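If it is no trouble, can you show me the amino acids of a protein and the tokens describing how it folds?
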Amino acid sequence: MVKNFARASTGINGLDEILDYLRMGDNVVWQVNSVEDYCHFVQPFIKQAKADKRPIVYMRFGQHPEILASDPDIKVYDLDASQGFETFSAAVHNIASAEGEGVFYVFDCLSDLLSAWATDLMIGNFFKVTCPYLFDLDTIAYFAILRDRNSYDTIARIRETTQLLLDVYQFDDKYFIHPLKVWNRYSPTMYLPHVAVNDKYLPISSSMEASRLFSAFQGFGPGNVGRKLDYWDRVFLNAQELMERVGAGNLAAQEEQAIMLDQLCKMILSRDERVLTLAHRYFTIPDLLEIRNRLLGSGYIGGKTLGMLLARKILQASPGHDWDALLEVHDSFYVGSDVYYTYLVENECWNLRLEQKKADCYFSAAQKLKEKILNGVFPANIREQFYRMLEYYGQSPIIVRSSSLLEDGFGNAFAGKYESIFCVNQGDLQDRYLVFEQAVKSIFASTMNEDALAYRLQRGLASSDEQMALLVQRVSGSHHGPYFFPDLAGVAMSHNPYVWRADMQPQAGMMRLVLGLGTRAVDRVEDDYPRFVALDKPLLRPVSSGEDIRRFSQHKVDVLDTKANNWDSIKAAEIASLDPAIACWKLAAERDHETSRRMQELGYANSTAWILTFDRLLTETPLVIIMAEMLKTLENAYEYPVDTEFTVNYLDEKQIQLNLLQCRPLQTVKKLGNSLSQITAGSKQRLFCTQGNFMGSEPGFINKIIYVEPGPYIALPFAEKYQVARLVGKLNRLLAADSSLEVMLMGPGRWGTSTPSLGIPVSFAEICNVRVLVELACKEDGYMPELSYGTHFFQDLVETQIFYVALFPGEDNVEFYPHVLSEAPNQLGEWLPEYERWQEVIKLIDLSSSRQSLYIELDLPERRLDACLIGV
């Protein structure tokens, strides 16, 4: 494309002579002392544009008075910068796209964006993504920045990007213009200061006149220390100075604290009013100054970090336990959300990100963007901060955790959608840096994971301002031989969604408890089971036989291998031989005499076997009491059920140190409802019934069923099981296009497993549109559901209101009639003709074609579920 360098006028003859006119594509930045000085140059520009019949657009977003009065020849767009950088920038981009080429733009003063974004950095980012696009559209755009409001770094980024940068002074009732940059033209006097004389601008060539002029504005020169700081830093310096005045007994300063606290909370913690209410109650200005001291970059700390810090403050403010002594001291660092956007801008990802926001590119452009993010480069100042942090931690293992703006909030947990990565942190500084940097890039890139995109789309957040901040934590635990891990880790919820007996109380809460790293508690782990603990009945189990207790227990422990410098899993029995011994081993493990006897009979040299029951730990230590009190305290403060992650290290067999890693509002199920007898008096045919092992809000009427036949699926070769999962995903997307469809998905073993020998290896994005999910036990083939209440998978089900059933045919109080499904007509070939050969494995059953629906009747007091086909 050949660039159009046609000329246009500023509306001021003398200024046109200095600049050799404007060129189509020019972005013109005016550095002024006041908005009134900016208006002085905007008015003739607009007057001339109207005379030339140019299309004129005014971008209105500032808090200052309007630059342009109402005029039928001027199109005005009112923008809300408080919605965030991404939303604002995307809106400007979309407006420019719709308006097209040759438009003359006037923007409000960019310095006013500081009140919404709090950092100069984001103003620089906005300019870097907006101006090149306006240049490509052959527009002319006027911008203003207030002198002494923006940092030198921001001015440098603007100078680098814009075509014209003009300094404006008003002195002795005269206007002076000093061009600092004029792209693609030159004259011998162009870069001298010029004074307005009538309609002319005359160059000041005399050294005496120039010295007199600039000495009057020496406060704005290179020696001005304030301008070397970002606005963000200046606010925090003001807060620090305020606290010093408060400490000195200054009464006026004491009255200013509430205003400053509110400003800092909105700059660094959240925009969510519900969260801010809690923050104002528990945080102080010194707390926020300490957060700033541990923040790399600028911006928000994100939901996960805020939840962790807020929970600790709530506990420390609570009477009862000495929480200060009980809680492990944390020394976390936080990577601010501005780093994420700056990384995208500096690595030329922004246009691709805007493309990805379009509905028809939402998933396809995400993969390209993900690759670009993984291969980007961090700015030098951010790299230096990363190095300093790694020097602080030395060779202590750390974990880098996602902490996006929308994560862990009220209504949106994003559980497991973004990555968290352990860095074992061994080797020299350069080696450790490279591993850490790749972890950061991977978490940034995980914003483009299919599951995360599907989650945002489903919850109406596809266009939301979603920045990725990071939480960097020292891994809790100790060295045991070559391994590093905590004694215990787990998930704890103040509401127990799985009460399988009438004498259990949901409001008592629950835990999923494991030995070692907590990964086995938050994820569905293949063929392994954490200890499920109902806090009101800690020794009660969903299973009772010795064989079931042995089978449904933890068999492996996740650890960090400091010799191999990676994450690993080892057999639980190996823990007993480690030196130094893990303090809580005797409390968590019991001798498995039956297995030991069998091993001895088979001639094993080491025939000692163990079962991780955790029984002594639950009865002989105060863990259950402490966790119950912690959850109730947090729930009362949040006025909402909570979901936490934690580690525990035993100083001895009685004394523990608790590390609260995460706290977020827990999305709970809705109340369950009506009786089948109230729904219909028509014909009924039972499909299945069970006592217990279900969870969710009442699903209503189901009119379609996707059924993976256990026998044919189990007989498939390993690779073809993955093809079945992809085909389920296709059906999930097709059926979602019709909002009238309510779908039940049913199949053998675990949905979402990564091992096809245990279930069906779908991603959550491939099943997210169903209404009911049934995991069918095929015990003889090893396909068993895992009642994973408390995992990220559980959170997905709750948040998307998917009713969950684990069905164990052959057990007491369980009935299943598979012939009802096997004999039903299969519509798979009609929906996906190219996949007709899979009809023996996958059935798509349209109940409405036979004038039927599936209804699930719930008897909550008896914990009974009855799924029947009914005539409609």
